[in-house]
């Protein structure tokens, strides 16, 4: 005892005598780590050695059964197992999650324990996401907004009744992912564009995307651990790497020019009053096909998306709003997720202008969830910035050009709710209903403010095109591949 004390004291003396170290100590992120990088590096090392060690354990089946016949091995496994469960349980408790995993005697079914771990991972990752957003300056209101009088469905599972549950809304909504035709890819394999037919192609789609066999054998669809999927993926796709990381419409976008008609001053075409505008809710393939045909005949239409990312790691596009000069459409993209790609016919038609407000995220979500791309984009947010308006948000443009007071209350609503409450439908349609008129006004003002010269307007078309050239990425993107890609949108991806 006294020996260890004197050791401590002498250590302290050494530290005290070294004022530099002391100074560094004060700046440390947490004890022993001078900054986040050092901590992450150490963390990766620890995770890697744990993964290696677990890979070295006897395999389930004969090998494991053989080892287990030795009492020493059996005892060791049990004590280590208890320690791991104890540790997991503490982490889960720390995050306020349910944590019965360590309760061996209760014989909690493996699947149920697995669910607990998955749920806890969701909560922890979501919290990390919120903190990262906060660090980025995004202030996410954590409580989803519900229309007045809207009651979330009652809790059905007795499992959750006794728990302090802070994510009530999410637990009560059937996860829409469950009915998707394709699995959600949470592996670390790089995101591969979902496109398999390319309407309006000047340059044909590379064979990688059209060859069904290669696509159908995506390792993330196989029932193998994520690390193995990554390896299989790398080996299989080496020869297609260049195609996989390129924007499928890069060639078409590089050769897109703005016609003179879109660089000259338009006469703003007043929007139709909401009350006199037909609204269609699209949730069947027939209606989607009909909408696509309608859109293909137009020279412009407005688009917006609503997205949910409260708990699911990558997020989900829940709704697409489209407005033409005459009609509003709301597409249930949870229902039509696997069919949305048909809209590429209109979305990539270079003769049709697609008007978005603040399209950066939308372009990523369109690619990630539907394999949709935009050729000929006009982003009114970029227009507003070029005009140096007081603020560049959509509600400001609505007030400025349309004298409409929009209620942004539902921006952070849980858009997975079905049937969609009327208040949310009305909110959603407002996001696109006025956008074509705003597009006219912004173009006219860009020309006016530049003495009728098209330079400023042209710069907005160029900025919009840059946004549409964004390539959505996830997973581990090997460093040597990065030069293949023009503009990357890493969605919590890791570049190595
Ligand atoms: P909007 O383009 O304003 O309709 O927003 C589209 C989606 O982006 C919404 O459905 C939200 O999921 C998300 N979003 C919008 N604004 C915010 C915000 N301030 N913080 C976090 N997410 C947002
Ligand atoms: Mn939007
Ligand atoms: Zn919106």
Automatic annotation (TrEMBL):
Residues 1-15 have a biased composition (Basic and acidic residues). Signal peptide: none annotated. Residues 279-447 form the 3'-5' exonuclease domain. GO terms for cellular component: nuclear exosome (RNase complex); nucleolus. InterPro entries: 3'-5'_exonuclease_dom, Exosome-assoc_fac_Rrp6_N, RNaseH-like_sf, RNaseH_sf, Rrp6-like, Rrp6p-like_exo. Residues 1-28 are annotated as: Disordered. GO terms for biological process: exonucleolytic trimming to generate mature 3'-end of 5.8S rRNA from tricistronic rRNA transcript (SSU-rRNA, 5.8S rRNA, LSU-rRNA); histone mRNA catabolic process; nuclear polyadenylation-dependent antisense transcript catabolic process; nuclear polyadenylation-dependent CUT catabolic process; nuclear polyadenylation-dependent rRNA catabolic process; nuclear polyadenylation-dependent snoRNA catabolic process; nuclear polyadenylation-dependent snRNA catabolic process; poly(A)-dependent snoRNA 3'-end processing. The keyword Flavoprotein does not apply. Pfam families: DNA_pol_A_exo1, PMC2NT. This is Exosome component 10. Keywords: Exonuclease, Hydrolase, Nuclease. GO terms for molecular function: 3'-5'-RNA exonuclease activity; single-stranded RNA binding.
């Amino acid at each position: 005892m006294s020996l260890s004390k004197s050791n401590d004291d002498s250590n302290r003396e050494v530290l005290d005598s070294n004022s530099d170290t002391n100074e560094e100590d004060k700046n440390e992120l947490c004890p022993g780590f001078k900054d986040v990088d050092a901590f992450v590096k150490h963390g990766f090392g620890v995770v890697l050695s744990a993964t290696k060690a677990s890979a070295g354990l006897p395999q389930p089946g004969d090998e494991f059964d053989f080892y287990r016949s030795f009492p020493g091995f059996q005892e060791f496994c049990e004590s280590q197992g208890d320690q791991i469960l104890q540790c997991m349980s503490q982490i889960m408790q720390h995050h306020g999650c349910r944590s019965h995993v360590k309760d061996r005697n209760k014989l909690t079914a493996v699947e149920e324990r697995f669910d607990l771990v998955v749920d806890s991972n969701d909560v922890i990752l979501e919290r990390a996401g919120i903190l990262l957003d906060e660090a980025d300056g995004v202030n996410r209101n954590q409580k989803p907004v519900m229309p007045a009088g809207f009651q979330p469905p009652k809790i059905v599972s007795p499992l959750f009744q006794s728990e302090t549950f802070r994510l009530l809304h999410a637990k009560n909504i059937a996860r829409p992912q469950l009915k998707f035709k394709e699995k959600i890819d949470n592996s670390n394999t790089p995101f591969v564009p979902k496109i398999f037919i390319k309407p309006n192609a000047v340059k044909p789609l590379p064979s990688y995307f059209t060859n069904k066999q290669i696509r159908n054998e995506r390792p993330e669809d196989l029932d193998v651990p994520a690390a193995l999927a990554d390896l299989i993926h790398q080996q299989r796709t080496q020869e297609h790497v260049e195609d996989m990381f390129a924007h499928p419409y890069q060639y078409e976008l590089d050769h897109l020019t703005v016609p003179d008609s879109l660089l000259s001053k338009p006469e703003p075409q007043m929007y139709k009053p909401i009350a006199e505008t037909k609204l269609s809710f699209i949730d069947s393939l027939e209606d989607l096909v009909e909408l696509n045909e309608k859109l293909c005949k137009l020279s412009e239409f407005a688009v917006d998306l609503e997205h949910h990312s409260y708990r699911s790691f990558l997020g989900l596009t829940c709704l697409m709003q489209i407005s033409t000069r005459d009609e509003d459409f709301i597409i249930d993209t949870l229902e039509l997720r696997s069919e949305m790609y048909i809209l590429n016919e209109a979305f990539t038609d270079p003769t049709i202008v697609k008007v978005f407000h603040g399209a950066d995220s939308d372009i990523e979500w369109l690619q990630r969830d539907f394999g949709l791309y935009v050729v000929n984009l006009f982003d009114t947010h970029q227009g507003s910035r070029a005009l140096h308006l007081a603020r560049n948000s959509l509600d400001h443009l609505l007030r400025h050009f349309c004298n409409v007071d929009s209620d942004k209350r539902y921006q952070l609503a849980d858009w997975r709710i079905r049937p969609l409450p009327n208040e949310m439908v009305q909110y959603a349609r407002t996001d696109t209903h006025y956008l074509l008129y705003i597009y006219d006004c912004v173009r006219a003002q860009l020309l006016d403010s530049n003495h009728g010269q098209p330079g400023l307007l042209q710069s907005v078309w160029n900025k919009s095109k840059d946004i549409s050239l964004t390539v959505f990425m996830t997973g581990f993107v090997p460093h040597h591949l990065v030069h293949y890609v023009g503009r990357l949108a890493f969605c919590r991806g890791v570049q190595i």
